[in-house]
Fold this protein.
Amino acid sequence: MNAVAPIISLKGISKRFGRVTAVDQVSLEIGQNEFFALLGPSGCGKTTLLRMLAGFEIPDEGEIAIGGQDMTHVPPNRRPVNMVFQSYAVFPHMSVFDNVAYGLRVAKAPSGDIAGRVKEALDMVQLSAQAERRPDQLSGGQRQRVALARALVKRPKVLLLDEPLSALDAKLREAMQLELVRLQHSVGITFVIVTHDQSEALSMADRIAVMDSGQVRQVANPAALYEFPNCRFVADFIGKMNLFEGQVLDRVGGEFSIEIKGIGQMTLPEAETAGDLATGAKVGIAVRPEKVRIHRDGAPEGRISLSGRVSEVAYYGDTSHVYVRLDSGQVINANLRNDTRSAAQSIGVDDPLWCSWEPGDTLILDR
């Protein structure tokens, strides 16, 4: 992060519900005008953390600062944030205009200001032409934009989004991802989004915090998170991953000698993800499926190579996922680009193949 003071600062935040610790000692800083994602599986604590930012839950421990002010015990209506819920929560009996104006009227904004501010908000989300329609006359994506306009019209410092795209179909969800990024750039405020969808977080966020069991496992920009996960959980949760168990035999210069369970010995270069490993350390050896190449007649020299037979081929249009059962019995996944019409048809179940990848594409995970 740059030298600009963070808009959000969380220090040692914890929240318990009975015997369940939903959020466990989380410390985070989120920057001005940043698009930040809280990502993780169901039950990991990400929504509870968002609700604490909004003021709907009070932490049992720790401090929340927004804009340099302590907000830990400040009620929701006095925080410089607004929230867009998963269900949109638009009023079905009101027009689009009245939905967006509602918060300003409740806050007793000057009546002369309301129309101009509502028009500005509707212009932002490209809904000015639908101002007099009711929500049941709109598409799902348009209703989502009404909810966004209603949140933005109050000009918060931070916009909180709780799984805002989960109710949309796949094609509309992808379009709205681009729309949210455009909107965040145009309004220039901080967005914090909660999602369990990896592709959603990777495509939209400037930085992502991956959560598991109430804790933050890693915070990084999307490319760093994908290419250099710091632990097995993040490696396995973000995208697809081939993961093997290993043990360090020796470390000489810039290389590790590692025994891979059921496969044998490999010599691998030091990796950013390896940490400070000693002889005998248990490690995870991982490689992304798109880094793996498949060969009919053996792999080129200098690449890590393993032989086996095709156990399954899953066709996805632009790619085919080829699963190869190695001689050890373990299965490795290689993603084959269907860059010709015949590519997907060239691989069949039980075909003998070699899988290979560059040594430098190997991740060595020490936890």
